[in-house]
Structures are given as C-alpha cells and as structure tokens.
Give the backbone structure.
Amino acid sequence: MDDFRKINISVTKLVAFSAGSGDIVPAFFTENISPAQGIEGQRELQDHYMGMYDHYAAEIGLSHSLFIEGIHVIAFGRADGIFSDCANPAEEKEGSHRNPVIHEIKTTLLPDHMINKKHDSMHWAQAKVYAYLFCINNGFDTINVRLSYYNIKTKQEKFFTRAFEFSHLETFFTRLIKIYIDWNKIIYAWKQKMLTSSKNLRFPFPEYRKGQRKFIIDVYKSIRDSGILFVQAPTGTGKTMSTLYPAVKTLGDGYTDRIFYFTAKNITAKVAEKSVNTMQNNGLDIKCISFTSKEKMCFCPGAECDPFLCPYAKGYFTRKRRAVKDIFLKEDFFYYDLITKYAKLHRVCPFEYQLDISLHCEIIICDYNYLYDLRTYLRRFFDEPSEKYCFLTDEAHNLVDRAREMYSTEIFMNQFLKISSLTQRHDRSLSSVLNEIIDHMVSIKNLYFGSSGEKHIFPALHEEGDSSSPVFRYDSDIPEKLVELFKEFNEAAVPWLIKNKSLPFWGDVVELFFSIYNFIFTSYLYSKEFVTVYDKRKKDFRIKLFCVDPSAILEEKHKLGRASVLFSATLSPQQYFSHILGGGGDYDYKIIPSPFPAENLFVYIETAISTKYRDRSRYFDRIAAIIYDAASVKKGNFMVFFPSYKYMEEVYLRFYSFSDQFDMIKQTPSMPASERAGFLENFQTFDSDCDKSLIGFAVMGGVFGEGIDLTGDRLSGVIIVGLGLPTISFDRGIISDYFDDWDHSGFDYAYLYPGINKVLQAAGRVIRTENDRGFIILIDDRFLLQKYLKLLPEEWNIRSEVFDQYEFNQDHDYIPDETDEISLTQQLEEFW
C-alpha cells in the first residue's frame, strides 16, 4: 500500500464515500440504461452545446493538490462540461460577461414531473466538488452549477442552476476530505497489520500432503506472474488451502490487494470459510466476507427496494457509513448472521450493507455470478480491470453449464398475454407496445412453424411419436425487431411502474420488466457463439438466446484481475476445459497426483448391467442386489448415486425389502437446507457393534455428489449407477452440433465430459484423508470401453468379476473371457 501521507482520490469515489445520503431506489429506475446508452446520451447533450456555444467545452480534467493534517491529498476528475463565459446559457445576451458554469449531466428515462431540484443530493455533491476544483485553479469567488437530466428516449433536457460562493464550496470540499482521511487512517493502520501478518504467515498445518507443496508453489507463481492456471487436484489434496494460502502470501508480498474466492454451492463456500478461519487462528489478521444472496438476506421481501415500502432502503446512504465503520472496527470475519445482526442495529439494507463492507475486505467468498454474470457482477470492483485482484474459482467444472446459463436468456409469449390483459384498462401506451410484441411473436412463430413459407433453418426436434409437428427450431440470427420492441416496452414501463405501485399486478409487470431487460442485455452479447432457439410446446411460445460456447466471455472476465486459478478434482481432458473455461492461448495446466495410498481404495466395475434408458427396467432388481452384497460384507455408511430421481426411486423401492437390515435415507428434489444438513448428519462415525449399515440414495451432480467431506468411517463406499450423461435435449443437441463443427467432438463436449465429471465427483466422496479406506463400484457395461475408461483416474486400480481375464480388441476395448470369474463379494472380503 502507498504511504498514507499521500492520497490520490477521484471525485466520484470521494463523493460516494463522504457525501453519501438518501435512499436506495428500485433497480428499474436505473438498470434499463446500459453504460453504453448513458455515455451516448451524455455525448449527445455535450455535442448539442458545443455546436451552439464557442465557450462550451466537454470532458475537462480538473485536479487539486492540498495538504491537510500532514497528508498530501490529490483530488481529480473530469467535469462533463464547462460554460466558460455565462451563468445560464438560456439567458445569455450579446456582450454579456458572467461567471463560468460547471455542467453535470445525468442520463435518465424518468418523466420530467418526477425530477425536481432535490431529486438526488449526490448529483449536486459531485457537481459542487468539480465547481470547487475549477474555482481553486482559476481564482473565482463565485460559480454557477448546472445539473442536467437528459432523457435518452425523448431527447429532452431538464436542468437546474444554482450559484455557489467559493467559501461554501471550500468548506464543503474540506469536510468531505476530512471524512475520507479519518476513515483512511483506520484503513491504513489495518492494512499495515494485515500485510505484516500475511507476510509472516506459516502454513497452518504441521506438514504438507503429498504434492501439496508443489501445488502451493504453482499457485503462487501463477499469481505473481499474472497467469491463468488450471489445476486438476484429486479429492483430499487440500485444494482450498492450497489456493488460499499462497494467495494470502501474495498479499504480503505486494502482488495483490484482494482475493476473490468463487464457488458454485454454499457447501463449498463453507470449506473456504473454514480455511480462512484456520489461517486467522494461526496468526493471520485479515478481513474476510462470505456473501449471501439478496433473496435470503432481504428483510422486506416483495418491496423491490422501494424506500416507501422498506425502512431499510429509506435513508440507507445516510446511515451506511456509520454502520460500516461499526462492524469493521469490531469484527474480522463477516457472514450472514453477523451482517444481519448489525444491519438491524443500524437499520440498513443487509444486502447493500454486505456489498459496502466488502470494499474493505481482503478476501471475498462468493458465488460465481459476482464475477462471471454480466448482469449481477460486482460493479464496484469489476467495471475496470485491476492488476491487484486475484481470482480463485473452486469446482471449476461447474462453471461450464453455469456460464451457459448466465449468458443465455429466454422469454415466453404467455408472459405478454397475461400483462396485456391486465394493463389494457390502465395504460393504453403500455398495452399498445405489448400488443405489438405479441403480434410480432406470432409472426415469428408462423415463420418457423407454419405449414408454408418457412425460411431455411437448422433441423427441428419433434414431439416424441409425432414426426409432423416440430416443437424446436434454431438459427444463428438474432430477432432484431423484437429486441427493439422490447426496448420500447421497458422505456414505457419505467414511468408506469413509478405511478402504479398500488395496482395488484404491479409485481407481475416488474417481473416482466426484468425478463425483458435480461433479453435486451443478452442481445448485446450475441455473437457466433450464440443461437436463437424457438420452442412452441405446451400452449406457449418461447424464444431463447442460447450461449453455446461461453469461452470468449469467460476469457474476458479473467482479464479483469491479475491472475485466475481454476481448480477442481475433475478438469480432464485438458483440451476441453482449457477451451470452454476461457483459457485462451496462454495458460498453464497442472495435474496434482493423489496423495493417498492406492491400496486404500477398491474400484470395481460391474459389467453385466446396462443403464441405457431402454434397458433400465430389466436391471432394477439386480442393482438392488449389488447394493445389498456390497453393504453386507462390512457394516458401514454407504451412498448410491443415480443419474435421475426416477431411476433412484425405482431401485429404492426394490431395496426397501431389506429395510429391516439397513437404515435407508434418500435425497428429494428441491431439498431445503435444513433437510440437506439432516441428511448428512446421519453419516456419523460408524460403530459396527451397535449400528446397522446406512444406505444413502442420491443423484449424481446434486448437492451430495460433490463438496461434502465425510472422513474416516463416516463413508466407507459409494456405488455409482450409470455414466451420468446429461438427458438428451435440444440444447445438448445444439452443443453437439457446434463442437462437431469445431473439432468433431460434439458428443464428448455435450454429453461424455459432463457425465464423467459427475461420476468422478461422486467417487471423490470416499477417500478424504490418508487414513480413509473404502470402495467405489461403477455399474454400467460401458465403463470398460476405452473411450470411457481413459477418462478415469490413473491411480484407480480397477477390478471386475472378469477384469483380469480381459483382452483388448482393435479399438482397445476390453473383451471378457467368461472363465475364472471372481465375485464382487469375494473381492470386497479380500479388500476389507
């Protein structure tokens, strides 16, 4: 950190921190204007005045250097415009000479009647600071400020002009600077303490696991050298500590000043929190925050951040500085219960409070979407790249489908039909746009699914058993006219939403507003990596902008920080993950060997069962028998993973006849957090003298298929039924077609790699420490095909009833010799 005796502070940052006041406003007030639209609107007004007046100049850089309390402060910024020779351009007369006017421009979609002189005190504060900087540099005693609100739809300007004495501006500016300095004295003292402790921090365990020290060195070097690093590290390598510890060391060495740890699930976030706590208990002084979603944190659900409905939004910016200072001085680790406790004490919105606290934290643990999602990313951090940010992405294999979801959007015709029927009696202008949208969607539907005049497009997918009625089509063109109609609707919706809060269907219009906003936003991303999907099923019509290949967007996201480390137990094959996760052409890829004795793990493939959809019903009883055999050799806790809930239920029913011999539990769809915790609590250290074996039934790719840590006798084996291949779908077919064109590996990208990743993640629940022992049983005859077998870990010593007698055919697949079979039960008895 720079010497505290010198501070460089932008006007925007100074005002945001020191002059904060007022309410949180609903997102639809501002989010309908993209940054590009805001800049374009501002330039339109600047160009207008530059064309009218010779004495008008735009984007004028201003700065001032001063010493206050022994500290050298440099404040800087760019005024939107300056009229250098008149107080009010509208009243300018020939030959007049008046004081200059500082011009501050804000773009808006609000109607004129909703904007008044006191509309936003922060806007005036920013303009006053620019006015002070101009006066102090040019010797003026008085100056005028013109605050313009430019409506980007109507192209109309509403402005207010105020005159200020230099003495008033100086007092105002000095007060802001002192507030900022007082806070930064606290921050500076803390940073010195943090830097010293991070530099002196030792590895918080007595010894490294096998391969862990090299893992840590690789991560440190990648961050130091500003690289992208992919790491495949088997379960039990200590991935979380192996990435967080070297990242913390880069803080102490000055390479970074903030670490972002991104997770896909709450359960993996808990592991990161535990690792930070461990380092804190070993002498690390650091501020860490673990984010919670807005939906969970909100004290007033349904209020839409309306200050008239939510007391925590009302006056938030007036109270937040004191609230942040209070928690910062008293706590070091910020989590849900603590943040909500302080939020209630200070009567501030807990979600916005969480975001403001994060500005002063060195470690931020949060969901993928806070970086990778282009709608909900942390603008306060990621609007500009920073060479001081380090990104750690946990369980990175999950980011593939999450990214496709983030960068895709869909909308349904029935959404418009519903709102149209509700609004037609209240607002003809809104209803008129809705009817235009509906008519255009009908024309699109007829174009793609009509009996004649269809345009040439890609193949269609049909309803099962009905070859005459296609339900999906797609092409590579974006529906541009529809996007323009969506923009018209959202522009009309803003004033409607403001004045019609009392209507019972107001919330439905808000929901449609944001659905349309997402569609418009995604349209800006549209490229050759996207397709447009049309779907006419279920008495509705859907249009989806589908991101098939998110790699280019992810690559740009990595550039927002100094370095990115993406890690998982399953990042093979290298070519697939390095491309799809945005590695670009310059990255490192490391494979960390398993640190545990190979003899502690028994891996068995059951080759006599097919789990293909058409064959499943033939083997339900046989699978139940295998579960019984495996769990009967030695008492313990076991889990069985299935590709779907339906498949799991069928086998569970067959196995239920053994319920007097085993305790049985199963995962359910949309399982609440309390039930998930209860499920895992059943897996306690096993006492073979008094306990019956526990069988947990779950689905691959679910919350119990990865991220859980059941060490020792808490889990003694897993049985995995099937390859985990995603269900055949139109979207998967599009992915397959796309990557077939890319490198002829469409099936692998769309189905094989995602499926095998689920298998490997589920298998990774068994061995968590060097003392764990257990088995993995894979049930599917395809596991012995070389295409699948080569994706399984090299350290697995795979067995089968007939495995030792297999020979290779010309495709390197195994051919069984039916002699000298060794049963699963026999092999398990030998293993245990």
The chain has 27 helices and 28 strands.
